[in-house]
C-alpha cells in the first residue's frame, strides 16, 4: 500500500460538555440507531482534508507543517447546526464563538497556504465546526425546536495548542484516526 487517507486537524481535548450535549440531543431527537455519536477521541477541527496521499509525500508535509507558527487558541463551543440542511441531516455539528472562529480560520489559512505549496487544494472555504453526530437514516430531520433550544447555548471550551497530521482508516465500526506528526503552538 503506497497511499493513506490523511487530513490536518486540531484535536479537542475537553469533551465533557460535548458528550453531555450528545446524550441530550440523542434523547431529544429520538434518532435511535440511525445516529452515531462521534467518539470523544475522534473529536477534531479539520483544517484541511488531504485525501489519499502517497507515503513518500509525508516527509514533505511534515517539513511544511514544521514551519507553522501559532499561539494556543481558546475555543468556546457554541450553538449547533447540520449538513446539508435541517430537513435531510447527515451531520450534526457544534460551532464556535466569533473570536474562536477568527483564530481557527487564521490557523487554517496558514495550514492551507503551506499545503498549497505542495499542490494540495482546499475544496471549500474553511468553516470551523465540530462534527458530533453522523446520521444514516432516510429523511432524518433536526427539528426547529432543537435548533432553537441548542442554537445559542455554550458547551464548554478548551485550548487548542497542537496541529496534527492524521491518518484516517475507515472501518465498519467507524473511522480510526492516528497521529502521524504533531506541531505544538509557540
Features:
single chain, 186 residues, alpha+beta, Cyclic Phosphodiesterase, Chain: A, five-stranded antiparallel beta sheet
Model description:
- The strands form two sheets. A five-stranded antiparallel sheet has the order 2-6-5-4-7. Strands 3-1-8-9 form a four-stranded antiparallel sheet.
- The longest helix is centred in the middle third of the chain and has 19 residues, at 98-116.
- The model has no long low-confidence stretch (mean pLDDT 92).
- The protein contains four helices and nine strands.
- By secondary structure, the protein is an alpha+beta fold.
- Strand 8 and strand 9 (174-184) form a beta hairpin.
- It is globular and about 45 Å long.
- The protein has a single domain (3-184), classed as Cyclic Phosphodiesterase, Chain: A.
Amino acid at each position: 500500500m503506497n497511499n493513506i487517507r490523511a487530513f490536518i486537524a486540531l484535536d479537542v481535548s475537553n469533551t465533557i460538555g460535548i458528550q453531555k450535549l450528545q446524550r441530550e440531543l440523542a434523547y431529544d431527537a429520538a434518532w435511535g440507531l440511525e445516529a452515531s455519536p462521534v467518539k470523544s477521541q475522534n473529536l477534531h477541527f479539520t483544517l484541511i482534508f488531504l485525501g489519499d496521499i502517497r507515503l513518500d509525500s509525508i516527509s514533505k508535509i511534515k517539513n511544511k507543517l514544521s514551519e507553522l507558527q501559532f499561539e494556543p487558541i481558546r475555543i468556546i463551543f457554541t450553538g449547533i447546526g447540520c449538513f446539508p440542511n435541517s430537513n435531510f441531516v447527515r451531520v450534526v455539528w457544534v460551532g464556535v464563538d466569533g473570536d474562536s472562529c477568527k483564530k481557527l480560520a487564521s490557523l487554517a489559512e496558514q495550514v492551507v497556504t503551506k499545503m498549497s505549496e505542495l499542490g494540495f487544494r482546499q475544496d471549500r472555504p474553511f468553516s470551523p465546526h465540530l462534527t458530533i453526530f453522523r446520521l444514516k437514516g432516510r429523511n432524518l430531520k433536526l427539528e426547529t425546536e432543537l435548533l432553537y433550544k441548542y442554537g445559542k447555548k455554550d458547551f464548554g471550551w478548551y485550548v487548542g495548542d497542537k496541529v496534527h497530521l492524521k491518518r484516517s482508516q475507515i472501518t465498519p465500526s467507524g473511522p480510526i484516526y492516528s497521529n502521524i506528526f504533531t506541531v505544538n503552538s509557540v
